[in-house]
Design a protein that fits this description.
The chain has about 130 residues and is an alpha/beta fold. It has one domain: 2-Layer Sandwich (Transcription Regulator spoIIAA), CATH 3.30.750. It is built from 4 helices and 5 strands, in the order ββαβαβαβα. It has helices spanning about 40-45, 70-85, 95-105, 115-125, and strands spanning about 20-25, 25-30, 55-60, 90, 110-115. β4, α3 and β5 form a beta-alpha-beta unit. It is globular, with a radius of gyration of 13 Å. It starts with 17 loop residues before the first strand and ends in a 6-residue tail after the last helix.
Length: about 130
């Protein structure tokens, strides 16, 4: 696991967002407490493209509020990654954040895990999808 943060692939995020390459094919994005204060996921969604070669884990451990713009960027990111044959996993979402996803029916669109370790494990379980 490399400890590079905000390095390469145009994934430099805004202030407060941290990116880390967990492996050659897995990118971890840790969102700040208030994602709307920077263009965090917008940068990520715009950087992804059909030939993108990484699965993405988005860590919500610090997130206190979930603005609609963040939700929109997650939807775009999920669609782009899916089209590229890659996966998006959301982890460590608080009960309040999960309630928002359930209320608007998006809990069925995204894959959620308890924490970063479980997110990595869920990607490993589906490794046969990506050579």
């Amino acid at each position: 696991m490399s400890g590079e943060q905000g390095q390469g692939d145009g994934w430099n995020g805004g202030p407060g967002m941290a990116t880390q390459h967990l492996s050659e094919h897995v990118l971890l994005i840790t969102l700040p407490a208030e994602p709307q204060l920077s263009s965090d996921l917008e940068v990520v969604a715009r950087s992804a493209h059909p030939a993108f070669d990484r699965d993405v884990i988005v860590d919500f451990a610090l997130v206190e509020i979930l603005p609609s713009a963040t939700i929109c960027h997650l939807i775009v990111l999920e669609r782009v990654l899916s089209a590229a044959g890659r996966q998006l996993v959301l982890c460590s979402a608080s009960q309040q954040v999960m309630a928002i996803f359930r209320r608007i029916g998006l809990h069925r669109l995204f894959r959620f895990t308890e924490d970063e370790f479980a997110a990595v494990q869920s990607l490993d379980c589906n490794e046969h999808v990506h050579p």
